[in-house]
Amino acid sequence: MTASLSTPTRSPIPRASAGSPFDAPVRDFLAYLRVEAGLATATLQAYQGDLRDLTVFLRVAGVHDPASVTPHHLSDHVRYLSRERAMESTSIARHLATLRVFFRFLYANRRLPEDPTRLLETPHRWKRLPGVLTPRQMQALLEISTPETGRLWLRDKAMIELMYAAGLRASEVGALRLTDFNRTLSVVLVTGKGSKQRLVPIGKPARECTETYLRELRPTQAAISAMRAACCFRTRGGRWNGSPSGRSSADWRTVPASPRPIRTCCGTASPPTC
User: Fold this and answer.
1) The total number of structural domains that make up the chain
2) CA-CA distances (angstroms) from residue 42 to 26, 38, 39, 86, 105?
3) 43: domain CATH number?
4) Residue 274 located in a structural domain
5) Greater pLDDT, 244 or 154
6) Is 0.85 surpassed by the pTM of this model?
7) Can you tell me the mean pLDDT for 202-226?
């Protein structure tokens, strides 16, 4: 088994010499990204910087052309970025993406017998837990839509109740059609990402709020197009964007402006509407 190469120290690293065997492949690769892929200048500069770091590292390790690069060389390079350069995992992941695309480009153009990045693993990134509302914040949000907050308060209240009761995204609520709401079974047919559909049960408060909106407010919306007429929450004012209308800023200071925490609450608590 090939022994792992020693990690170069931080001092001092020579620059890649002119006429390096890496120059032409890198130049052709960047031209491909600029002309064929249409990448922005800033993105091209990022790719170029990543490849410059790689070629300098490889030259120190005694590797002078792309055909001599092995997975061990690239693994050592990744360790160098992490330990010596103290790069964050997100930066290393971006760097690895550059290497993968570069060597796949060379392999696809038959400049390499095999792709040395095929066995490289991307470092795992920490996933941030989504924010949630406190019970007091959620209750305040459920009670924030009143007749005093605007003519669409019934619509806003129904949508917030649905997001909270069924854990729906704002886009999913905004796209609900009249035929998706089943009053008898207290379920909604939700079309999510990738046009995937699922049946989601809703509680009594959400069902009653939605029924009240459909009965008392929605029929009063004039000049609704045929397409909007089929949708629950698309009125003359347009598609709901996740921000209830007619609220004063003072009413909203105790709760987040983003609809994401509302959806998260359904999966992390036991709300009375679920």
Assistant:
1) 2
2) 16, 12, 8, 23, 20
3) 1.10.150.130
4) no
5) 154
6) no
7) 78
